[in-house]
Amino acid sequence: MSEKIVRWGIMGTAGIARKNWQAIRKSGNGQLVAVASRTEERAAQYIAENQSQVPHDPPPRPIGGYGEIIAADDIDAVYIPLPTGVRKDYAIAAAKAGKHVLCEKPCGVDADALREIIAACEEAGVQFMDGVMFMHSDRMPALRGELDSGEAVGEIKRIATQFSFMAPDDFDENIRMQSDMEPLGSLGDLGWYCIRIILWTLNYEMPTSLRARMISQSGAPGSHDGVPVTLSAELIFASGVTASLYCSFEAEHQQWVNISGTRGHIAMNDFVLPYFGPEVGFDVEQAHFEVDLCQFHMERHSRRVSVNEYADSHSTSQETKLFRKFGDLVLGGTPDPHWPEIALKTQIVLDTCLKSARNDEEIAL
Fold first, then answer.
1. Closest CA to 351 of 53, 117, 106
2. Using one digit for the tens of pLDDT, what is the confidence trace for 25-59?
3. How far apart are CA 249 and CA 87, in angstroms?
4. What is the CATH number of the domain that holds 252?
């Protein structure tokens, strides 16, 4: 491995990997060496499509099958956007081959699977991280500063969040509706982000109990089971904070979080996928209510906090910073245990939500 460059391989030709194709190129410390698919022809087609818009020099080579990319001597790290149902074995094999592992979310079909992946990475001395891009945005330190100051929100009492999109009519044919490939449905695809922002806000305090509801579920033709389509959950924390999440394939694009406290609240309406532009930010709201006999006045006091960061497709964007951060950890030679720890906490809460919704019960953690 070069002292300054991490040589990447992409395992799979998922749509999200197209975004990260560009992020690797713009990271400054990464080079995309190869892309693997089930067939070399499919990998070559994928490379040609992406090269036409965002060319790498030299172009990455196509690989048929995933064993060869794991064994390749000229690859230091793998990005794995393969379906959740088959992810564990490939992630473990990559770790055993000495490859650092950046894994799409949800990281495993359950927490036990993720524990096996993390253990393999720890034993091999390689970095593990999930692919939550918003964690690497400069907006997050700015948000932490406002929360920790005590002036914007005060004592946190409530967190509410939603991530949803309106699926097309033929969505039953989508891989996210196949229980063998993506058994966690909208909870894994969207709810992972909601759970992460809740845990992040509370410095990874775990809930003491939660209650989830399966509002709707369905499955692709031939699936042995249904997957969550719309799910909501209420989380209770020992600190006195409560939190709610809603994830759905049945409500048009929303991806917001609202953090409320004794002095005000913070609203972020694009916490996963920032709205297009050269800045990302959030709003601090501290309304003032005053009554003078018959006059009732609700005054809005709002303050915008933003940072100079492009929403996407830029060297400053959060997906680029994800790969740059991962590359820095790889080049630094010492894996950071923080990233697998928070992935596992997210997966544990996610698993508990699914169990609660399936069994129609409140569960203590």
1. 106
2. 999 999 999 999 999 999 999 999 999 999 999 99
3. 23
4. 3.30.360.10
